[in-house]
Amino acid sequence: MKFFLIFATILSVAFCHQFKLRNNCPFTVWPGLQGNPGKSIPMNGGFQLNSFESRSFNVEKGWQGRIWPRRDCDKYGYCQSGDCGFRIECRGNGGVPPATLAEFTLDGYGNQDYYDVSLVDGYNLPIQIKLIPGTFRKDSNSKYNCNPAGCYSDLNAICPNELAVWQNGWKVACKSACEKFNNDQYCCRGAHNQPSTCKSQYWPVNYPSIFKRACPDAYSYAYDDSTSTFTCRGNPTTGYEVIFCP
After folding, report:
1. Are 150 and 24 in contact (CB under 8 A)?
2. Beta-ladder partners of 40
3. pLDDT given at position 167
4. How many angstroms from the chain centroid is the CA of residue 168?
5. CA 143, 154, 201: angle at the middle one, nearest 5?
6. What is the pLDDT of residue 168?
7. Over 80: is that where the pLDDT of 69 sits?
8. Is residue 61 helix, strand or coil?
9. CA nearest 54: which of 71, 29, 75, 32?
10. pLDDT tens digits, residue range 15-29?
11. What gap in Å lies between CA 241 and CA 20, rounded to an integer?
């Protein structure tokens, strides 16, 4: 019985997914982590990650969720961007936009992973998602198969003033047009809830194009799938590194 339990433990670890979070920023970042409904909450949902430090954890097979950076958190747990409710461990809470998101759906259709970096909720820091060597197998030479996804530009520097979040005279985050204006056109809802009706010809100003030009491989609006969704298969299970300020 003891041998069986040890073997089962080894097997469960072997078929989980490893994540490594690395902070390349010259300042502290507080990652937020949220599992989709019914999925685990890694690391209780958040922790402090000092400059140039990294931290690893595992998630179960079939995990779905998101990871985002929080900035300038105080001793009470309140963060100037990406805040999840005055707490360091988000414990299931999502981040308040604007925040750059790393999104994952693991072991989905055809036992394939789907991952992306999204600016749909706005932007606060650059992010890169990379596969851990030896944990994956490529199905094709497509740009979107097992390759890094990310947003590497400083969008705060080019953020239009009407979308900018300011702190002490500096732009520290950039809102999405949906968050700022809260209308159906930018938020892809109502009569604009289809790919055919959520596009630039219906937007008063093409704000998503600013995001897309700066970060061509990241989601700039809800239906930006064709140039933003990456896929991969495990060998036997994928491992991911999420890098802040790559």
Report:
1. no
2. none
3. 87
4. 27
5. 70
6. 87
7. yes
8. coil
9. 29
10. 799 999 999 999 999
11. 5
Cβ-based neighbour number of residue 191 at 10 Å? 10
Q: What are the helix and strand counts (H, E) for the chain?
A: 5, 14
Give the pairing of strands 30-35 and 54-59.
Answer: unpaired
Q: What share of the chain is helix, strand, coil (3-state, %, to 5)?
A: 20, 30, 50
CA terminus-to-terminus distance, the chain: 47
Chain centroid, CA 86 distance in Å: 20
**pLDDT, tens digit (0-9, with 9 covering 90-100), for 124-156:** 999 999 999 999 999 999 999 999 999 999 999
Please tell me the total count of domains within the chain. 1
Maximum Cα–Cα distance across the chain: 67
CB neighbour class for 17 (10 Å; exposed up to 12, middle 13-18, buried from 19): buried
Cβ within 8 Å of residue 19, ≥6 positions away? 42, 56, 57, 58, 59, 67, 239, 240, 241, 242
- Contacting residues for 9 by C-beta, under 8 A, at least 6 apart: none
What is the rounded CA–CA span in Å between residue 60 and residue 128? Answer: 22
User: Six-digit token pair at 159?
Assistant: 């953020």
Per-residue pLDDT at 14: 54
Query: CB–CB of 205/181 below 8 Å?
Result: no
Report the distance separating Cα 82 and Cα 84, nearest Å: 6
